[in-house]
Amino acid sequence: MVNYLKERRFQYKQKCSASKNVAIATSFLGLIVSSCSQQTAINAAANSDSSSKTLTTKTTEKNNVIRLGYQKGGVIPIARQRGELERQLATKNIKVEWSGPFDRCATLLNVLNGNRADIGGCGDIPSISGIAAGQPLCIGSIQRPSPDSLSNAILVRGDSAIRKPTDLVGKKVAVNQGGAGEYLLLKVLEKENIPSDKVQRVYLSPNDAAPALYQGSVDAWAVWEPYISIAELEHQARRITTTHPAPTYGIMVVRTDAAKENPVAVKAALTALSQDGEWLNQHTNAASDFLVKELKVSDAVAKQVTKNRGLESYVFPNAEDTANLQKTADWLLEQKIIPQRVDIATAVCPLGRTTAR
Q1: C-beta of residue 180 within 8 angstroms of C-beta of residue 126
Q2: Phi and psi at residue 258, to the nearest 5°
Q3: Sign of CA dihedral 233, 235, 238, 241
Q4: Beta bridge partners of 202
Q5: Where are the alpha helices (DSSP H) in the chain?
Q6: What is the pTM of this model?
Q7: Are 249 and 285 in contact (CB under 8 A)?
Q8: Is residue 157 within 8 Å of residue 214, measured between CB atoms?
Q9: pLDDT string in tens for the chain (357-residue length)
Q10: Sign (positive/negative) of CA torsion 106, 110, 116, 117?
Q11: 313: helix, coil or strand?
């Protein structure tokens, strides 16, 4: 009996000891799990914060870059050479990137449409044509028409028998489709009461139209500066028109997404370009020197281009500008140059209320 009691007491001690060990082990395991869970939560929070910072940094970097595309001639490539625009935007933590030069507006608009630039300088006709074609573009700032500007002309070869617009009947005229050249030709024919189907339009880019004129493949060429001065002074071409019968606007075209996502940088760049234009208006000799470097042309050509183009004054459009551009857009639709009506008021970039000068 005594032995039986001793044996039962020993078994009870073993059982209690085992229970304590299990309890201690369970408690220790709970501490480990709790610690791991807390660390996992801390790591997750840290990773989330890191991802948020990375996304914010990428967004900030994107919003601090403005890409300017440009044609041959005009204020943008000169601003690029001058360097003041980059210095001014750098003070606002905005980096500038450049793309160009391009031979015509259609090429530049394709670059904007392909998200390879944010802003580019064009005429109102190709700009409206691009918007009508569904390209995601909007009107940033504008240069108002100058009635006495000589920056557009219809050219013929120096030895051509063509002397006036009425002599174009039955002839071939090179123009850029849906652009300033086609618009000029149609407006000249309209003014002279010449049916448009009496003159054959040959759609060529400036790089193709120039040799076509010089070699006699076309009889005339409706074009703009700097191609006019190059043709006149270096290839003995001559103009058969003086001023434009319907002077056109210059437009700083903006990629719509850039205007929506990055309005501060876009507006800052447009303002800086306007200031560059005003500086050039007061320093015409410097403007000519910039053109010599940019276009690789003679000093005589550069001086004539500067003179013919007139003032480079870009402002934000007001109600009168919008109404004038709407008339042009409606005319283009009537002439079936564009496929659908463009509402100019809604085509102006959403950059906030700005008073035009």
Answers
A1: yes
A2: -65, -40
A3: negative
A4: 174
A5: 2-63, 75-82, 84-90, 105-113, 124-132, 180-191, 206-215, 227-235, 256-261, 263-281, 284-295, 299-309, 319-334, 344-347
A6: 0.78
A7: no
A8: yes
A9: 334 333 444 343 444 344 444 333 334 334 333 443 444 444 444 444 444 444 333 444 456 899 999 998 889 999 999 999 999 999 999 999 999 999 889 999 999 999 999 999 999 999 999 999 999 999 999 999 988 899 999 999 999 999 999 999 999 999 999 999 999 999 999 999 999 999 999 999 999 999 999 999 999 999 999 999 999 999 999 999 988 999 999 999 999 999 999 999 999 999 999 999 999 999 999 999 999 998 889 999 999 999 998 888 999 999 999 999 999 999 999 999 999 999 999 999 998 644 444
A10: positive
A11: coil
Q: What residue type is assigned to position 239 of the chain?
A: R
Rounded distance between C-alpha atoms, residue 212 and residue 63, angstroms: 44
Closest CA to 356 of 322, 333, 326: 322
Counts of helices then strands in the chain (DSSP H, E): 14, 11
Whether the CB-CB separation of 141 and 124 falls below 8 Å is answered with: no
Q: Which amino acid is at 94?
A: I
